[in-house]
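queue> holo job accepted (magnesium ion)
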Amino acid sequence: MRIASWSWGGRDHVGIVSADGREATPLLVDYAGGATLRLIETLARGEALPPPNGPRVAVDAITLRAPIPRPRRNIFCIGRNYHAHADELAQSVFRDSLPKEHQWPMVFTKFPETVIGPFDAVRLPGPVVSEQIDYESELAVVIGRGGRNITAARAMDHVLGTTIVNDVTARDVQVRHQQWLLGKNCDTFCPMGPWIVTADELDPRDTRVRGWVTPAGAEAELRQDASTRDMIFDIATLIESCSRGITLLPGDVIATGTPAGVGMGFSPAKWLRSGDVVRVEIDGIGAIENRFE
Ligand code: MG
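queue> job finished
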């Protein structure tokens, strides 16, 4: 099942997109922005979804929003979680970090307000803030049933499904402040979507993540291409770590880290410019595509 959020006919809706990605069936009108979370809580309790609340519409005719347009709290994000990415930034972002063999994952967060739709524009913050804007193609896990101190052995039972995020980053800001909060949280820095694919339809532990950059006026370049099997800490371990002493809630999002191939990993680095388009595709989910301007 694909859970999506969209605007159509002057209203926001939450509902289900067909398996071929072509039709959307509304279940709830999203009056106050929390309808996806209500739907996730319904599923987490093992209850039936509400009946359709309007006519089926073509996905081409609607404007997809992020599946959770405004998460109830910060998104958990994992830093340095693919071996080749750890190596490509070993002398820059990760220079002063503990060795990658360290047994605990790096965790930071993004504000709910950074989230934008799967095809919305990302706003460059301008040269006064940053001249080193970078992309990070990532699989994101959406928690269904909440819990605290979840063991890795039971962790996958808490996964409602997965979606895609681009963990957009201002590298100079990220490095300048040592703590990553500011460099990861400029407005619009978390494109998300196009929908949540539930765990019964996709095993996120073994799928392909790809990221393309189309520089303004040029051909698309495949920059990132990896399997989620290459994660340093697997999804179950990430859920175990993020829930240690912290109650995870239905609808919490964990962005699981990016593979190698980010702009900073090239020599010279390839920063995003106005007019560039970044596409992130994950097999079994779909793709998001965002223009930077
Ligand atoms: Mg990231």
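queue> The mean pLDDT is 96.
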